[in-house]
């Protein structure tokens, strides 16, 4: 896996993935940026959320569950001192569909957290406390 990050100006950078997708990263105006893009630490949270969501949906689809929506809400706390690393992250899944079994959703979340989500497991090994929860709702 490869990526490049190119400085544009001030606190703005253009990141490009090895698969050819690009994203603008920028800082807030009070840190020399123009607030035109996502912050790098926000990207880490999005990467974690995407990784675990991909796992959960893959597991649920293999179980042939009728999932209509899956949203991962991620909240993080950072250290007050520099480096301002993540200290705690909580991922809350909101899964909706027809005839969903809570036990199967719980299992999917647990498998992602403990076995499959590389981002989550890597951050935990670096000392970040990561917790998970979920809610299941019925839809028509």
From TrEMBL:
Superkingdom of origin organism: Bacteria
Protein name (record): OsmC family protein
Origin species: Thalassolituus oleivorans MIL-1
